[in-house]
Amino acid sequence: MNIFRKRVGQEKSEMKRTLNSMDLTLLGLGAMVGAGIFTLTGMGVALIAGPSLMISIIIAGVAVGLSALIFAEFASRVPSHGGPYGYIYATFGEFPAWIVGWLLAIEFFTTISIVAKSWSGYFKGLLHLQLPPLFNGPLGSTSGFSIDLIPVFVVAAVSIMIFLNARTVSHLNNTLVVLKFSALIIFVIAGLFYLEPANWSNFAPFGLGSLIGGQTGILPGASILFIAFIGYETVSTAVDEAENPRRNIPYGVISSLFVAVTLYVIVTLVLTGTVPYYKLNVTNSIAFALTYLGVEWAATYVSIIAIITLLSVALAMSYALSRLLYSMSRDGLLPKKLSKISAKHQIPVNSTLFIGSISLLIAGFVPMTILGQFLSLSTLLYLIILAFGLLKLRKDHGLPQANEFKTPMVPFLPVLSILINGFLIVHYHVRIWLLLVVLLGVATLLYFVYSYQHSKLEQNTK
């Protein structure tokens, strides 16, 4: 068995190339600017790092930025379908690509569910809605059976929206991103009139944090806030529908990440400067801050916009995940039905239905805290693999051509990315590691039982 056989290049896709560089940038922003900025910033400030969460964000942004530069070179030199899955297929071979595909799928599934839960928090906060315990929390939140019902409906709505072609989904996402930015700009401008420097006096109440296994402080905050910037890789999964992917994919990855990091720092600065950090342990922190300041009209506007636009994150992630499963199915590693394209909507219809079904169950039954850690851990692992992949790409194929993106300071930068991401990994609980190991064990079993024999590379040898 040759589990390291490589698939190089990209097959012709049935989907149309309609996305330009601005569409791709907004796709990345649609995925990154969502639950992290509307929910996790407040909880991170209150429970993990205090006002020094700004430093945590910068550390996380640097870690993600290093990976984004690596992404950009891969996207330019290896414009393969499936994003990171395709990049690893071309450098390390089939089985490593299969594992990376699973890690990517875990990231996207959990992000969709986290966003659905954040949306639920803003919705219930705006309407002061109190549901019976049976329908108001994941399994285990009460003594009997329980389900988080509103996130289930959110996932169902997003799945329906995905049944639009890429151009329509892009227009919808772009509109939602613009609305989202308007809410954040209003918050920042309004907050500037109420800044109290005294709120920053206890800048790092939890300290730096432990180097290994810490749960509070600046360093653990960087591990948790890493989740905020997960989503820029959705840009790379759009390679089948991008105009000039060698140029536009790298542009979309880097520009969307730069804008997102800047926005997160500014919002956290204003948030902690207007409200004492220990009061921000709420799921609707930005709206809460405006209510705390007495700017009720702005709080209502932010809540309404958050409710509308948080869907853009789930929309972008569902889009990216459906394209990932489509790519893996085209390669024969998943059942062929998952790469079936709808003649009417030009989307992978069965992949979209499958994603909606699994995400619905995760959103309804799995707690937010587990989802957040699981998401970050799976992402960090595949980013480490991708950094090793760039070293292998340079070793096997040398420097990029003049018209291709070149990651600077290789091998120093990829090695630094491996070290930083490896450092962030050690802050996750052992039970999260065990759960991930079990899932990857299932993935390995499926590969040897089904995927290896059905791979197109195996079929071509017969």
Task: Outline the structure in words.
The chain has 462 residues and is mainly alpha-helical. The chain contains 17 helices and no strands. The chain has helices at residues 21-32, 35-49, 53-77, 84-91, 94-127, 149-161, 166-192, 218-225, 245-274, 285-293, 296-309, 311-330, 349-365, 368-397, 412-425, 430-454, 456-459. The longest helix is centred in the first third of the chain and has 34 residues, at 94-127. The mean pLDDT is 83.
Number of separate strands: 0
Helix residue percentage? 55-70%
Radius of gyration: 21 Å
Whole-number mean pLDDT: 83
Number of helices: 17
SSE arrangement, N to C = HHHHHHHHHHHHHHHHH
The largest sheet, given as strand count, sense and whether it forms a barrel, is: none
* Shape, principal axes of CA atoms: globular
Low-confidence stretches: none
Distance between the termini: 14 Å
Beta-strand content estimate: under 5%
**Which structural class matches the secondary elements?**
mainly alpha
Question: Short summary of the structure?
Answer:
The protein has 462 residues and is mainly α.
